[in-house]
Amino acid sequence: MESIPYDKRSGRIWFDGVPINWSEVKIHVLTHGLHYASCVFEGERVYDGEIFKLEEHTERLFYSASRLGFKIPYTPELLNKACKEIIAIQKVKNGYVRPIAWRGSEMMAISAQQTKIHVAIAAWEWGSYFDPNLKLKGIRLDISKWKRPAPDTIPWDTKASGLYMICTLAKHEAEKKGFTDSLMLDYQGNIAESTGSNVFFKNKSGELHTPIPDSFLNGITRRCVIDIAKSKGIKIIERKIMPEEMTNFVGCFLTGTAAEVTPVSQIDKYKFTVCNLIKDLSKNYQALVRKKTAA
Hints:
Blueprint: E1 12-15, E2 18-21, H1 32-36, E3 39-41, E4 44-47, E5 50-51, H2 54-67, H3 76-89, E6 95-103, E7 117-125, H4 132-137, E8 139-148, H5 165-176, E9 181-186, E10 191-194, E11 198-203, E12 208-211, H6 220-231, E13 236-239, E14 249-256, E15 260-267, E16 270-271, H7 276-289
Parallel strand pairs: 8-9, 8-15, 12-13
Antiparallel strand pairs: 1-2, 1-7, 3-6, 4-5, 4-6, 6-7, 9-10, 11-12, 11-14, 14-15, 15-16
């Protein structure tokens, strides 16, 4: 399934209120969201037929839209129901859900006050974001030249499509060098996140250090993993972290809806071990999303 282009797949997509045939979903080439990035979205995981943290994702979608100055023409309750409806139609047991909202084609210029707001929800079976074999031994990250912009220059706390342009550039840059992904710094040169996941570091004392999310998204998975770690008595320190401080850390991992808990073995010249603490957090996260009991 992964090799099939996304516009060639089968089934239904929820589009502006109703499920329609996948191949019949159309938007105009002069859609404002395409030209000016007036578009917000979510990425949600399905585990054993249930969407994990659905309500939190929907809440963030509405918040993102409000930050971009438009109103989604449905209630959160209706979109929650629609997400569940589309995974049932698509028979998704373990996969991904992509709700997206954007400004339409009624106006073509910077101003978009009179555009219609469209909403679509697609779902499909989907496995690991990173190569499962790489995840076992830890993925390798480059350090990107692209930085997270200052918080007064962009709506940094949203999941808006325009914010991901530099992520694609950073990931392509890393892949050309043989890395799996890239670490991005913030506008001040501190460690921020990867191209689509939050980052944690473990020191020799067993503490977890993670950047303060003040110019990038405070991920839903990030918050879940922090709660798991605290329940196990692991000390969490949220602070500004400079790249050279990675010398002092012995472990590293990424968190995200797509990445889940992914160990990191290397960032640029810095090396890390996939230790038992990281493996245990990953195990407990999997237990949480599948509503099972972990040790």
